[in-house]
Amino acid sequence: MTKEYLEEIKIRLSKSSPGNWITQVEGRDEGCGSHFIMTGVKNANDYLSKERGDDIEFASGFTINDQDFIANARQDIPLLIAEVERLQN
What we know:
Blueprint: H1 3-15, E1 21-24, E2 36-39, E3 56-57, H2 64-88
Antiparallel strand pairs: 1-2, 2-3
Helix pairs in contact: 1-2
C-alpha cells in the first residue's frame, strides 16, 4: 500500500460522521424498530447522547451482514491505518 493511498483513506475517514458507529437491526437488537446505524455514540445505550450524530438508515438491497460491516468499518479502519503505519515505519 502506498503512502498516497493510505492518505486517501485517511481523508475519507476524516470526512465521515464521527464514531463510534453502532449497528441496530430490528428483531435482533433490543429497542430498535428498523435497520440503521447510530453514529457518534459510545454504545447502544448512548442513544440519547447530545454528541450522537445522524442515523444512517438502510433501504432494501442491503443485508444485515452488509450493515454490520459498514458500521464496524468506522472503528476498524483507524486501527488498520495505525497498524499499516506502524509496519511501514
